[in-house]
Amino acid sequence: MTFEIDRDHGRTHALFILAVDKACTSTPSSSRGEMGSRYRTCLAFILLLAVVPRPSVSAQQHTVGAGSSLSVEDRARPFLTSPDGTFSCGFQEAGENAFSFSIWYTGAAEKTAVWTANPGAPVNGRGSRISFRRDGGLALDDANGTTVWESTTSGGGTAALTISLLETGNLVISDPSTTVWQSFDWPTDTLLPSQQLTKRTKLVAGYFSLYYDNDNVLRLLYDGPEISSIYWPTPGNDPFKNGRTTYNSSRIGVLDDNGAFVSSDNLGVNASDLGPGVKRRLAIDPDGNVRIYSLNASTGGWTVTWAALAQPCSVHGLCGPNAVCEYQPSLRCSCAPGYEMVDPRDWRKGCRPMFSVTNCSLQQASPEQQPRYKFVKMPHTDFYGYDLWYYQSVTFQYCKKICSENCLCFGFSYRLQGQGVCYPKSLLFNGFTSSAFPGNIFIKLPMDFNTSSASPASARRSTTGIACDPTVPVIVKESPGTLGRPRNGAEWPYLFAFAGVLGVLDLIFIATGCWFLSSKQSIPSSLEAGYRMVTGQFRRFTYRELKGATGNFKEELGRGGSGVVYRGVLDEGKVVAVKKLTSVAGGDEEFWAEMTVIARINHINLVRIWGFCSQSRHKLLVYEYVENESLDRHLFDTDRAALPWRARYRIALGTARGLAYLHHECLEWVIHCDVKPENILLTREFDAKIADFGLAKLSKRDGAGGGFQLSHMRGTTGYMAPEWALNVPVDAKVDVYSYGIVLLEIVMGSRISDQTTAGGERLEMSQIARALRQVVASGDIVPLVDGRLQGNFNPRQALEMVRISLSCMEERSSRPTMDDIAQALTACDDEDEHPAYRS
């Protein structure tokens, strides 16, 4: 039965009303007999009217068959309602003339969505339609006919399939014996009672997500455009200190009907109104916090009955870079002194400096030429993480001097907790102000910067719903490089103790130096600062520790030109990948130099590095363990199922973003030099993570000649740019060339180096490029795409990928940048189900 039939029922009902009106209306000329006859007829019509179907009856269906649909113009009625009336699904307003297809609690005053088919991709308020197609697929079509979302059942259905909204709020497509699709398997930002959160699902709200990590712990993650950061449970503790366990790999979390949320990692929390009979939901909100909400049956309003974070400003990334979050008593953001908002409408983009950032090459100048700085104090404020290193038992002035003399330091945190503790910052991120915080942050600004003319951000309402107030800074007007006495209540004890501290430090340095000499390890003085930074940010392992963690290097994960990778398990249960480097060109000095750069690299599409070992001839790196193997195994292994098109496009885009970060956004310009499918690792969600970038040669952005000279060729045959063989300085365009080859292989599903002519001869790159030009010119992409996809791909995306690949193979000067490529792929990205191309 369709809703068009329901409208017919409505017309029938109206005709009966007209008939009753005519039958029951008497005229002055009517006789007594006629009036009695009319009375009997009227009564019969009234009785008949009672059994005529009304529109409201058909609008309350909880199950419909194939062919049913609802247009957005009829959004006043639900598409389906659960049998007990608790849940409804249909069109819900998502903006001005914008609508989503959602499920909500019927009795709530605000129809807050508990599931949405098309988050972030609303459809037009006129001409859009949700349809349960005859092939068994539920599809949402926009006004222009484009399918913006559809269930994964499309194409395999039968006439026996029905769609139902259950009393649990689960939207289910099933046949008489089997459930073939359900909304509970595809949560958006909400978990309903009895709905499971699993290792394959997560709750997402903007840049924030609730998910099970590789160590089986339920976590909250900020995953921004440039930085990712876990902020719950307390990131500074190991899982056991946070009351969690890593020893249950089932990874399941459930909110029950009594308001208790129980997770397999030992997390158990209760709603404050624990007990049956209350309608609830657990949701991750746009402010990054996870809360349990309970519905007030009398008012229809929602009440927070549990929250993961008691302090809202504990959420990372909430106010963006160079900004500070404060709760007083509502959430407010403000820029650090010397910084201004990037976008007045959106605090998530943070703040940018109002001064010119110093070129680090100036740090090599004479003391007279070095830039001079002042520091602006922000009381009871800190920026969590991104410490270059930390010092204990030091004075305020010593901490300030360290930051003044380090180009990579943008400020420092100093606090007194029985001793002076100093945290120089490489990045001002995750800022917060709290009267309970025992320390202060000091923002580094050029000496000639006029802080009085820099007007702080005024209170505004941003698109994220966060209001912002200015922070009134206190300026510390002291010339850099001067070791005066610290300004704090314990200044005199530190003054008297300072000489003793220096003596102790001298002894430590002497002892450390002797140890290194005895073990035949020497760290060049030019790299001493980098050493301090690395040992503070990473964990430094001994060779014995890594030998034990890997079971004497027993389980090999892969190998390449730079070394062999083994699986390891650290003492705290964390699974890692340990790379045993076979050779480190240039010895310890180059190794330490590369490590100082690795310490500052952090991007969601780059493999995270947890630590390292440098002990005599042993050089090892400790990486995060990425569980879904490398791209080549999914792309070229014919015994596996074909990698779906959506996953391929995600991998291509993620890899482009990771390389763009290395080339354009790092403080140091990083060239990978060996981009290939084997160095692109995949998470369980098929997100790309680039490996081995830490072993690349480095160059300053403004290096002479725009490139750098290598002592020998690097890379893998088939992916190496032609300039490698020409003995000329190479630049980031060698990675662009390699990426173009990988991009083409993602489309084709086979190695480019394995392509042959009809006669069995291997194709030259010039022949391949000529064939690609013909494909781009004709637009006929079908013969080029991996046949194992059986036509299930997006032709627009495939053609754009081939066009980009062709441009990457041009002469070096004509190749695009990775930033250009990332932008082009983003423009073609479609996060929802793509329209399939079928040959």
Compute the number of structural domains: 5
CATH architecture descriptor name of the largest domain: Orthogonal Bundle
Distance from first to last alpha carbon: 33 Å
Level of helix content? 10-25%
Tell how many strands the DSSP assignment holds.
Answer: 47
Strand content: 15-25%
Radius of gyration (CA) equals: 32 Å
Shape verdict: globular
Quickly name the level 1 CATH class of the largest domain.
Mainly Alpha
- CATH topology of the largest domain: the name is Transferase(Phosphotransferase), domain 1
Explain how this protein is built.
With 839 residues, the protein is of the alpha+beta class. It folds into five domains: 3-57; 187-310, Agglutinin, subunit A, CATH 2.90.10.10; 318-485, no CATH class; 519-625, Phosphorylase Kinase, domain 1 (2-Layer Sandwich); 631-839, Orthogonal Bundle (Transferase(Phosphotransferase), domain 1), CATH 1.10.510. It is 23% helix and 25% strand. The chain has a six-stranded antiparallel β-sheet, with helices on one face. A hairpin with a 5-residue loop joins strand 40 and strand 41. Helix 1 (3-23) runs antiparallel to helix 2 (32-49), helix 6 (528-537) packs across helix 8 and helix 10 (645-665) runs antiparallel to helix 11. It starts with a helix and ends in a 12-residue tail after the last helix. The model is unreliable at 1-23, 25-30, 42-59, 455-499, 509-537, 697-713 and 831-839 (pLDDT under 50). Residues 55-186 form the Bulb-type lectin domain. Its main location: membrane. Residues 309-345 form the EGF-like domain. ATP binds at residue 580.
